[in-house]
Amino acid sequence: MVDGNAMTGLMQGKRGLVMGVANDHSIAWGIARVLHEHGAELAFTYQGANFERRVRPLAESVGAKIILPADVQDDASLDAVFAAIEAEWGEMDFLIHAIAYSDKKELTGRFAETTRANFLNSLDISCFSLVDLSRRAMPLMKKGGSIVTLSFLGAHRVMPNYNVMGVAKAALEASVRYLANDLGPQGVRVNAISPGPMRTLAGSAVGSARRVYKQVEANAPMRANAALEHVGGAALFLCSDYGASTTGDVIYVDGGYHVLGMAQPENI
């Protein structure tokens, strides 16, 4: 048996930035909580006053000293975030990128009806932001590090009402591979975690979210949806020294649903 006490402290002495927490049900918060439990020192960003009211108490509950506004489409705000991290820490060890957006009205109906404006905006926020943030984080990862983003099965298969987000996640996963190759010589690893459907604020924006959640729960080999701590555990592996040789990969945390070709016999 594994001694649970021997597994604590995996992130002791490591510092990193978590971007994309919306509330205490966010996947980003689930990741942050697990990393903190294992000794990581965390910085957080939020977008706007509404999110600050939710994010700041959570960040303060894990002892965060750096809690700053950030808009991935505003270079000045990102400059300020990384300048603050450099001033406070001097360097960083990991970046959690949990940022995605699409107009909710276009996450119902047909993908063919996607507008040019929403397509470009969705790809900018959901995919290019990883490239931009990785470029900014890289100089601060002086001893190597880990960059982790979040994807979804809709990057590879058609999921109900996921629409342009599926295209954005496919581009995101391709970006993970190219970034992994670019940053590998510096000792920086880049990976994605692909959770199953989860009851989050972001997930609720997708039409038919509840039906998808129930479908996965009924048919996944584990007959269960993943919990936040399961995603946090995957991130812990990727950000800790145990993940030192894993890069350019997509880690599925979905109870095995991604391996299926069709529904379980009892559900056909």
TrEMBL record:
Its EC number is 1.3.1.9. It catalyses: a 2,3-saturated acyl-[ACP] + NAD(+) = a (2E)-enoyl-[ACP] + NADH + H(+). One of its GO terms (biological process) is fatty acid biosynthetic process. NAD(+) binds at residues 20, 26-27, 47, 71-72, 99, 169. The keyword GTP-binding does not apply. It is an enzyme of class 1 (oxidoreductase). Pathway: Lipid metabolism; fatty acid biosynthesis. One of its GO terms (molecular function) is enoyl-[acyl-carrier-protein] reductase (NADH) activity. Keywords: Fatty acid biosynthesis, Fatty acid metabolism, Lipid biosynthesis, Lipid metabolism, NAD, Oxidoreductase. PANTHER family: ENOYL-[ACYL-CARRIER-PROTEIN] REDUCTASE, ENOYL-[ACYL-CARRIER-PROTEIN] REDUCTASE [NADH], CHLOROPLASTIC. Belongs to the short-chain dehydrogenases/reductases (SDR) family. FabI subfamily. This is Enoyl-[acyl-carrier-protein] reductase [NADH].
